[in-house]
Amino acid sequence: MSNVYINNSHGVDDDDFYDRNLALFEEEMDTRPKVSSLLNRLANYTNLTQGAREHEEAESIGEKRKAQKSPQMGTFMGVYLPCLQNIFGVILFLRLTWVVGTAGVLQALCIVFICCCCTLLTAISMSAIATNGVVPAGGSYFMISRSLGPEFGGAVGLCFYLGTTFAGAMYILGAIEILLMYIAPWAAIFVSGSPDGEGAAMLNNMRVYGSIFLLLMALLVFVGVKYVNKLASVFLACVIISILSIYTGALVSAFSPPTFPVCMLGNRTLSGHILHDRNGTATTTLWLQFCEGPDLNASCDYYFNLSNISEIPGIPGLSSGVITENIWSVYLSKGDVLEKGSLPSPRPVHPPTNRLPYVFADITTSFTLLVGIFFPSVTGIMAGSNRSGDLKDAQRSIPIGTIMAILTTSLVYLSSVVLFGACIEGVVLRDKFGDSVKGNLVVGTLSWPSPWVIVIGSFFSTCGAGLQSLTGAPRLLQAIAKDNIIPFLRVFGHGKANGEPTWALLLTALIAELGILIASLDLVAPILSMFFLMCYLFVNLACALQTLLRTPNWRPRFSYYHWTLSFLGMIICLALMFISSWYYAIVAIVIAGMIYKYIEYHGAEKEWGDGIRGLSLSAARYALLRLEEGPPHTKNWRPQLLVLLKLDEDAYVKSPRLLTFASQLKAGKGLTIVGTVITGNYLHSYGEALAAEQTLKHQMDKEKVKGFCQCIVANKAREGISHMIQSSGLGGMRHNTVVMGWPLAWRQSEDPQSWKTFINTVRVTTAAHLALLVPKNISLFPGNSEPCAEGYIDVWWIVHDGGMLMLLPFLLRQHKVWRKCAMRIFTVAQMEDNSIQMKKDLATFLYHLRIEADVEVVEMHNSDISAYTYERTLMMEQRSQMLRQMRLSKSDREKEAQLVKDRNSMLRLTSIGSDDDEDTDGASENRRVHMTWTKEKALQYRATHSGCSTPEGFRDMLSIRPDHSNVRRMHTAVKLNEVIVNKSHDARLVLLNMPGPPRNPAGDENYMEFLEVLTEGLERVLLVRGGGSEVITIYS
């Protein structure tokens, strides 16, 4: 025994032996792989790097492309430092001192704390999303789009792109401000001769130099990202050295404060630019500024005459106690002079003019403005998630690195606020451009050992941040374009041969140029604040949604999150948007909304398993359960359609105008289910059913019908239709109206199944208490692009079955095709009815229904049955009899052919009464008999039963006398048809009560004839059969 299993001489392969163990599953191995092969594929999966490593390698001309190494970066180098570099920026060096001086230490701490809370809560949400599976190229955009769907993903992705692009513009403007204000003021191209034009000249300088810088940076990014990445560490070192010099300077100021004297006239701050060093000439200089001449008796400024000139230290130092003065806010209006409240001052008679050498406020400040200007200094938290491909363990590094970077930067900002308030004089803090300290950068005055450390460091760090923005933004746009959700952005998905996004870089540079043309750092900052806040808001929303919906795939490794934190972050983001600038907030929301709607209507269909789809499912389930509580009230009744379509042999829709009519009736409201039946076996016809479903979807899109399609495979068409009518819909969202086409040329059709299926469907809808609409001559109905000229929609209200006849024309007239048509209602009065009173009552009824229509009562007199009616009935019955006999003889011929084939076989034959094999149902089993056929018996049977094969059979048929009930029905049909054609021959559409089929199925063919006679001579007819419930009411 052991020899069989152990020492197998055939040498079975390990794989074969393994497969033999899985022989039960071998037929499905192509669609359901072995677990080992799946795990092997996952183990070999390497994430795409999101830095520019692959581009660097492609750019190294002449070098061999190195083999792709597995990502090796840890938390510190891969996430923590990039986040630090992106978060610390231009605002810290250029505006934080001004924010502290204007808002006061307490309010500045509040601003910093709110902004840092916003980014911390967003980072927690982002960590949960980033650790819920692998995040490939696209970083933050990928996270949002895969969590919230293509519409939100595209809208927020573009907002994030615009924010990053404007951030690049802001950093360039910051670099130019440092260059022209503090490094090389002599480099200004535009110089104003008067104080009034200084601001405009400065803005023009910013525009020119900003455009030059942008061009140079864009060229550097175009030439090679590897240079930007190599410079990144240098720029980061500049930032860290600058921050350390501020802390060192603050500590040193406690023992030996740096000497930066500030001249004050009374309590007003004087500009240090006009004052020389104290060598006896300062008084002369001031005299010339405030007086009309150098003489001692010259008339001088009123305030100058009454005030003393004093000098105060610009940096009193950490131990001076100046924080007590700086703790409260001092908001100024544009043109106000910077004043020190503790110094004595005479009451001014006139406000100072800008021709005097004071330091003025350049803009009107408020708490909300400062929030908008400061917020960009806390953005940049996505840097770690954007590099997830370079990390050894992204799911561990991203949360730790990002949150630690935010905590570090928050600590730096909060401590800087306190240090600035404790070390620097209030008027110097409020002096945005350092005019009072001879044009020095205010934060530079505190640094140690020299102000140049901060000036040079901040210049290079802002240049580096600008380069990083111009590198990251085009890649983000390329990721959005490659997803193909926004059709007009497709061109930006292409680039150089190595994948570098050339076109995206060009667009980014053009948008950044718009920011540079604004030229003011204080105006650009709130714009990018809006876009970043919008992005963070949706990150929080994504996390909250996924958590609340408990999606099965929502299993983040980072477990320190909660939906309440995400909602709090979302609320803070929204509040900050409207606090900092309500009009920018509205613009940002409108832009995002427009992008959302554009993607919804024109974007590519994507299924990313997003949270919005999950939210839709939850909302749909809730709504369906609510709908289940009871039947809809009459006031809420609207036709929920099940449209039955037939496909031809090539799987094309036979009557597409049925869908057109459905769209005109619905006008996009309510439920529409489009169904078709394929005859066959489901096991063999599954592919055919899918193809038919796609055909229906395509036709629905073409006709702009919003709804669902359903394809059923059944052995018989009538069974499939019956199943569809019974089972379509879900809960309260079920159809209440069936729309089906009239069987064309049913008289000429050899196959009786078309009209038999039609009548069977009428019976099924009646049994299910559903309304039925049958448009006759559907090919003559107008298309959606063919509005009817002025005419009438005529309603022939013969019997009342719920008010469908009143409601349908009203709904049709909501559509542009039927809008110009007026409505006429005709009703039939018998001899015993008072037609005048009927007309009054009907007019009152329509008035209460709020339906405008002309009313007419048509009197039908009792008349004898005409010879035409009698003859028509006779022809109908003769034709029915003849067709029945012909079908029987056809059946006999088939039986004889079978007899020749299998002479002595035992056959199960259908009983003589059935029309066709398809006509048999479960009851036919009882009618089947076992017969042994001989040639003689077959001939005898043929002679006895083939009635139409002998002249006697035809003579019997000619001697038929029509059935009296059929004559009466034909009489009604003929008389009604005469009246309808007389009154409505020119109507655009005629709506008519559809009589029910006979209870006895033997009269089905006669029923079809009655309907033909009833609608003869009318171009467009809609036969309407109510479901038995009231669908229209006079009550509000």
Sheet with the most strands: spatial strand order: 6-5-4-7-8-15-14-9-10-11
Q: Let me know the largest β-sheet.
A: 10 strands, mixed
Rg for CA atoms: 43 Å
Low-confidence stretches: 1-18, 45-67, 903-933, 943-955
Q: What's the total number of strands? A: 15
Helical percentage = 40-55%
Return the structural class.
alpha/beta
Amino- and carboxy-terminal Cα gap = 89 Å
Name the shape in a single word: elongated
The share of residues in extended strands comes to 5-15%
Key phrases:
single chain; 36 helices; three-stranded antiparallel sheet; alpha/beta; disordered N terminus; 1036 residues; ten-stranded mixed sheet
Describe it for me?
With about 1050 residues, the protein is of the alpha/beta class. The chain has 36 helices and 15 strands. A 10-stranded mixed beta sheet has the order 6-5-4-7-8-15-14-9-10-11, sandwiched between helices. The chain has a 3-stranded antiparallel beta sheet with strand order 2-1-3, with no helix packed on it. β7 (about 735-740), α28 (about 755-765) and β8 (about 770-775) form a beta-alpha-beta unit. The termini are far apart. The model is unreliable at about 1-20, about 45-65, about 905-935 and about 945-955 (pLDDT under 50).
